[in-house]
Amino acid sequence: MVAAPPSVLDAPAGERGGSAEILAGADGDALDAYSHAVVSVAEHLVPSVASLRVGRVGEARRPVGSGSAVVISGDGLLVTSAHVVGPATSGTATFANGEEVAFELVGSDRLSDLAVVRAAGVGYRAATLGDADGLRVGQLVVAIGNPFGFSGSVSAGVVSALGRSLATSSGRSSRLVEDVIQTDAALHPGNSGGALAVSDATVVGINTAVVGPGIGQGLGLAVPINSATRNIIGVLAAGRSVRRAYLGIGGGARPLAAPLSAVVGRARGVEVLTVMTASPAQHGGVRVGDVVVAVDGQGVESVRDLQRLLTESDIGRELSLDIVRDGRQVERRVVCEELLDGDVA
After folding, report:
1. What does the mean pLDDT of the chain come to?
2. pTM > 0.90: yes or no
């Protein structure tokens, strides 16, 4: 039998303190590195995160909601959550140094839960936007916002999961925000619209939701900053509405049987669960129970894939849908329309 290595407790009494101090020192170094990363992010980003007090039209002095926002340009553009501003068009933004200024809504997109506002004045310290597509589960993240109105609050944690979905709505329209970041960094009411950043202080997400009692504790969600959301932010910052193509189906991912999977070249597709009346899909002959596996030759394995392929440029354009029906692959031609209130993707 191989002897166990000597333990600290096996050492003579006079030597134990030194070994314990070495272990404590190692833990201290690790804690210092963690603390240094969080402190560095806070020092960089706290000046770039504002507390929003939102007022109704004509009632800017009467706050009806609050949240956070992140400065994205020196001339006062801030990105926040669409549900923070709601139907309001103005309010006040307060920064960590105590400065309070008025803001006006530039654009809001409830289907991505993103909005852009412009604060009065210039010379703001803009945050650097990163790319959430490079995140890894377990990576350190820092959340900065104004929970319960306490400005400049900082919490830290890790990326708990990636690829989550968040249901959003506008009027009677509904859509899934995909690739949502799940984190255990403490989030509370008022954090929405604030920054989720990594150790180099780049912002990779806009905090949007807190999972509450009865559903889960210690879990928060953030809309990712990536190529898709950067495009949305750019459209909103230009004062334009985000336009999306619309097929008129509701569905979910479905695995394909092995023989069929080999034929179509992918393991899953999107099963059609609902077809809207008088929608492009209905006009094109799409039925409940069909499984969409490709759009214009591009593979579709999830609702995310389908939404990613339906862009503004597809509005009014005829698309080819590869569909599995009754065990056979068929093609249907569909002319996309614009997503409006009352529609689903």
Report:
1. 83
2. no
